[in-house]
Specification:
Blueprint (H helix, E strand, L loop, with lengths): L6 E5 L3 H12 L4 E5 L2 H10 L4 E5 L7 H8 L8 E5 L4 H9 L4 E4 L7 H70 L3 H26 L6 E2 H15 L8 E5 L2 E3 L1 H21 L8 E8 L2 E8 L15 H13 L2 E4 L6 E8 L4 E2 L5 E2 L1
Parallel strand pairs: 1-2, 1-3, 3-4, 4-5, 7-9
Antiparallel strand pairs: 6-8, 7-14, 8-13, 9-10, 10-12, 11-12
Helix pairs in contact: 2-3, 5-6, 6-7, 6-8, 7-8, 8-9
Length: about 350
């Protein structure tokens, strides 16, 4: 397999010197073409197929610097070696600033041809390296654009998935609520209401993700505020009329937000059922972050643990709370100093960060 010889365009009005350049560079494997002035040189370059240019300074019509400027206005211009008989260094500086790859002082006997060969090889290698760099940068930019497009598409799909899952879970919660209201059996009604709260806790996370700018996290204070509002709407009468939230702005991953929401649902519903046998009373949910730890407390001022165990209780709520606490690698305990019931959940807050915004309250 043979490779095509590189082609040099020599632009100079001196035909004799052009022949010397042609003979000298052909021995080194170059094809050499000659243009007698700047205009014909530019015309030849527009046809393509030129790998490197040697350009004389003094020519009729366009001089070397004017021709150099027009060459670099062409798309994909080849490198240019500027050639002159002048010893003035200012010309070299001007040519290099104008974009010339190299600068040579010529002689009428053609002794500079060996230097021209070296300069041409260096200019072509520099051009090859620059093109490889530009191609690599273009590929990086193209890959980055493709990644950004895929990431945007993935985000849209995830939002749509969260929207549909949230809607489906909300429908299930609504069906459970309707079934609970239509039941005349208090035990069945309580079980369906508890199930509805658990479904709503998961649905709220998906609704938060659908409307959030970040699909990898949930603002926990906002999530709990919405969750407690769901519980208020689902409660009969005024059993949760004094349910309040005091929460610092904390960001958390969705999986752990679900576990926390289910724990809050279970403990709040437990307080509603057992803390105030004679009616409604205050139930407080508090969320605090201390450096890399988080503390969640559900408090009531009711009868506390002195109340007799309800014989209808299945212990399902306690088992769910325990399972979710294990998922969070959290400790959960009752505050013995509180006269009513105060359950405190503590765990390390990996992937949690506080946000400078107002705390939620109800």
């Amino acid at each position: 397999m043979t490779s095509t010889a590189p082609t040099l365009l020599y632009i100079d009005d001196d035909a004799g010197l052009a022949r010397l350049v042609e003979r000298g560079l052909r021995r080194h494997g170059f094809e050499v073409e000659h243009a007698r002035d700047g205009d014909s040189g530019i015309a030849r370059l527009r046809q393509g197929g030129i790998d490197v240019v040697a350009l004389d300074q003094h020519m009729p019509g366009l001089d070397g610097l004017e021709t150099l400027e027009q060459i670099y206005n062409l798309p994909h211009a080849p490198p240019v070696i500027f050639v002159t008989a002048s010893q003035d260094s200012q010309i070299a500086i001007t040519a290099l600033k104008a974009g010339a790859a190299d600068y040579l002082v010529k002689d009428t006997q053609g002794e500079f041809v060996a230097q021209l060969h070296t300069a041409v090889k260096g200019a072509m290698e520099t051009a090859r390296m620059r093109k490889a760099r530009d191609d690599a940068e273009a590929e990086v930019h193209a890959a980055r654009d493709r990644y950004a497009a895929l990431a945007a598409e993935r985000e849209v799909l995830l939002r749509e998935v969260n929207h549909r899952v949230g809607n489906s879970l909300q429908i299930i919660a609504s069906l459970l609520h309707l079934q609970a209201n239509s039941s005349s059996d208090d035990d069945v009604k309580a079980a369906l209401t508890n199930a509805m709260g658990r479904v709503a806790a998961v649905a709220q996370v998906h609704r938060r993700l659908y409307t959030s700018h970040d699909l990898n996290s949930v603002m926990l204070n906002q999530y709990l505020d919405a969750l407690l509002e769901d519980l208020r709407r689902s409660a009969e009468g005024n059993r949760m009329s004094r349910l309040t939230l005091k929460a610092e702005p904390i960001e958390i991953d969705p999986d752990r937000a679900v576990a926390i929401g289910i724990i809050v649902n279970e403990l709040v519903m437990n307080a509603v059922k057992y803390a105030y046998p004679d009616g409604a009373g205050p139930i407080h949910v508090e969320l605090h972050s201390r450096q890399n730890d988080m503390e969640l407390a559900i408090t009531d001022n009711g009868v506390g643990f002195q109340a007799k165990q309800d014989p209808r209780s299945t212990g399902m709520g306690q088992r769910i709370v325990g399972a979710m606490a294990n998922k969070l690698e959290a400790s959960i305990e009752r505050d013995p100093a509180h006269s009513g019931t105060r359950m405190v959940l503590r765990f390390q807050g990996k992937d949690i960060s506080s946000k400078p915004q107002a705390a939620a309250g109800a």
